[in-house]
Structure prediction request, 725 residues.
Amino acid sequence: MEAAEIIRLALESGRRSLDEHEAKKVLESYGVPVVKEVVSRDPHEAVAAACDIGFPVVLKGLGSKLLHKTERGLVHLGLDTPEDVIRAAEAISREASSDLEGILVQPQIKGRREFVMGITRDPIFGPVVMFGLGGVFTEAMADFSLRLAPLNQQDALAMISEIRARRLLAPFRGEAAADTDALAKALVGISRLACEHPEVGEVDVNPLLVTPEGKIVAVDALVALSGGQKRKAAPGHVEPRAVGNLFHPRSIAFIGASSKIGKWGHMLFCHTVSGGFPGEIYLVNDKGGTIAGRHVYKDIMEVPGKVDLAVVTIPARGVMDLLPRLAAKGIRSVLLISSGFAETGDAGRRLQEELVEAAKRLGLVILGPNTMGIANPHINLYCTGSPVRPRAGGTAVVAQSGNMGVQLLGFAEEQGIGIRGFCGSGNEAMITVEDFIEGFALDETTTIVMLYIEGVRDGGRFFESARKLSRKKPIVLLKGGQSEAGNRAASSHTGAMTSDARVFDAVCRQAGIVKVEQSMDLLDLAAAFSSLPLPGGNRVAVMTLGGGWGVITADLCAQYGLEVPALSPRLVEKLDEILPPFWSRSNPVDLVGEPSNSIMTTVMEELMQWDGCDAIINLGIMGRALYFRKMADAVRRADPSYTQEFLENAVRYMHTFEEDYLRLIARLMDTYGKPVFGVSLMTDEKSKTVYTVEGFTSKPVFYQTPERAVKACARMYEYKRFRES
Prediction:
């Protein structure tokens, strides 16, 4: 019987699961190797089947209601004689009672290595495939990997390689290596089952045994039926051009303009004007008058010129009546700052839905509501709730938390990270994060995408659009709200172990998204991706002014999957000519506190030329000017024998060296295509993360700690691997 027929008949009979034998037939038709077995109606048939199969055998109670057979004593292992089979069959019959539909007879499969694989359905992302350590350790060890269906062979092999127990798949205590190709094929097969049969809610194969010969065999299986899960309808697409128009207005009308400092209608107008926006600005308030010396129109229809963007800050109750007037004025782009919509509860949600329907009828595109604004430094547009003005660059920023977003903009301004554009996406009533991702793929000025998100409306579209964009440009993402509160009760190991956070992590890995855990990681990665070439591999050379720093950095590299290779004999000979005889002759290269600037630059050039490394981390070179300035201040107060001129010249000399060093690093990165991750000796309020050097594409990057430099290097290498996969 075909898989589709088995599933159809089960559903028609009102069943919510297949029995074990049916489940295995379905799985076998999708490429999962299953154990040979016979269904018997009574103990005597079970004996006959056991004799035919050959002892020892396993007996199991069979029935669509018998989902947890081991706990009920319905599994009997290692039966060596007909008498053993009779006793086991009678015991199963007594325990299962009316739920028993047959007795399953299987050969006793040898195999000490047990794994699990399965399917569950996420309400946002759809079918999810799981693979991990099986048997009694499944939930205790929680050693598993996840991917969205459908899988290809490469996805499946990546899943297999991610679990901590992957060494059990290699030759093990005299047993052959597992057939990982067959295992990957089985994972691809169950992912296809999930896609072709939405009525299959869960699949659980546990244990999936590896025999001493390395064969893969499913000896137990569960297939739960859902009747065809329907996901909540997602918002429609907004065309990238319409999204882009929001960020390129030539004229702006502030509707709800206010003269009162601190109110949104005053704040956004002031930030836009002070940021140097070159276009026309109109103020609209039904009271009229003047604000900041500018005429205030009582209605949008009174504005004499063309308006490209309406910035709306009036109360939510007045927005619906405003929309037709915006459309009549020829405005198509609306930045809706106003709150009081879906974020307030059911009534606000209904109002927001009505708003979206009206906007669609009128041909309006709304960003928001409940947003902190937008910015486009390339046209000096800073229409946000915070007076931050980062420089123009290639990093596009979208934040589902406006407060988090403007904080990130503030950090970007301080650290010299160039911004392509920013928006707080608010409630995403019309324009969603998926729309922004698709727009970034087409925008040539965008080189990196930085996202802070708390939820996804259309999981499938998010995944597909992010995966396409990641092939061209890196996405660096911070996820808020990563609790396991979304866990749901399930009848299988697969369902019990997946959670919203673990599924989202899997989505990011599969889509090539660089996911970070802290807000500063977001900025660190944006700085690295916007400024440095990608590392060609994971081999890192470390150059340090102090030995301890080098040791810590080498340990961090090992922790994050980076290799610190031994120096080549030829490179050691070259460095012997430069460094004192007591230097370590190893990687990390300890400059043993040598103060000579020429030594530092020469060693850096030698390491960049060395074909044994793919990236360099240098520690303590930058920041010495600040160190010298503090030391000069101390000397000035303590030792009058040194003149003011001498001390100022010493500090000036170090500043000049740092400028030259930045130029050297930029030139070497452009020449050799290797990234250099710097860690400053000291920093102050004037220190930056990114330094722009005129005439060069690459930009030197300096962090405050080795941890930040190593994490940035490791994440860039992971992204490089995704791009090449």
The chain has four domains: 1-33+110-231, 36-108, 240-529, 532-724.
